[in-house]
Write a structure and sequence with these properties.
Length: 293
């Protein structure tokens, strides 16, 4: 009987993740339309949605990376049937009574199906249990407000208490301006949680995707024991145009891109999306015996 219950539980969790990832994966999706074409903003060539899905939303023509949703990314790395979402109902509010902000939050929720810009979950990667947080750039460009900071912090604390490895995929335009200083406070809160996690021997893998900027870069995104990045991702605090306008000089080619950051020691490795799960599994295996947990 327990085996039957486990199987049913696994099916339910897997079905939930598959359903939420369906708009991008196309698996059993009622809105799946194979003939629909998507135009790459880089090379401006078109390819079918099916071709994009098969390439994990890396342009089939020029190789440019497109942003992907949080649930879809989780479906690419977590073992089938192991997904369990944490703090699913935690959502943003309007602490400063910013004009029009509640309406914008509601619109983003309707548009994306997300409660806010962060998704946290537990699951397994090749049989190894982990805690994973994904910032989804489809919701206000992954900006960090109080809800995002709280969800990230709770996930870190959960990983600390359960002695599980932590993986955070960052993609953010920075702090949520409608929440003012309360948004900026999340930098200190998340960083303090990472410090506590690290002091107890936790393994933290920070995976930077396009773009990772502002307060997220200046806090938990830069504190990983191992720093990974997707090809071509913009990684920095201020954007290159802001820096050029400030210093009055032209920046080097590729400045702040993941390849530049790897060359200068900020990123340990650039990992293609197709190798994402295998690379994470290898790191987890290397640290599962005799190393930090």
């Amino acid at each position: 009987m327990p085996k039957v219950l486990d199987a049913l539980t696994g099916l339910g969790r897997s079905s939930t993740l598959a359903r939420k990832a369906a708009p991008e994966s196309g698996e059993l999706s009622p809105i799946w339309q194979p003939p629909v074409f998507i135009t790459c903003p880089g090379c401006e060539r078109r390819a079918t949605r099916r071709a994009w899905a098969e390439s994990m939303y890396v342009c089939p023509n020029c190789g440019r990376y497109q942003p992907i949703g949080g649930y879809y990314r989780l479906s690419l790395i977590l073992d089938h049937g192991t997904f369990r979402e944490l703090d699913e109902k935690l959502e943003g509010n309007d602490p400063l009574h910013f004009p029009g902000y509640p309406e914008k939050l509601a619109k983003q929720t309707r548009k994306t199906g997300l409660s806010d810009a962060a998704i946290s979950a537990t699951g397994k990667i090749e049989g190894m249990p982990v805690v994973v947080v994904v910032l989804d750039s489809h919701f206000f460009m992954g900006s960090m407000g109080t809800a995002v900071g709280e969800k990230v912090t709770r996930a870190i604390e959960y990983a600390t208490n359960k002695k599980l490895p932590l993986i955070i995929f960052s993609a953010s335009g920075g702090a949520r301006m409608q929440e003012g200083i309360l948004s900026l406070m999340q930098m200190a809160k998340t960083s303090a949680a990472i410090e506590e996690f690290s002091s107890k021997g936790g393994l933290y893998i920070s995976y930077l995707t396009h773009p990772t900027t502002g307060g997220v870069t200046a806090s938990f995104a830069s504190l990983g024991d191992i720093m990974l990045a997707e090809p071509g991702a913009l990684i920095g605090f201020a954007g290159p145009r802001v820096i050029e306008q400030t210093i009055g000089e032209k920046l080097p080619a590729g400045f702040q891109r993941s390849e530049f950051q790897e060359e200068h020691g900020f990123v340990d490795a650039i990992v293609p999306r197709s190798e994402m799960k295998a690379t994470l599994a290898q790191i987890l295996r290397l640290h599962s015996k005799g190393g930090r947990r």
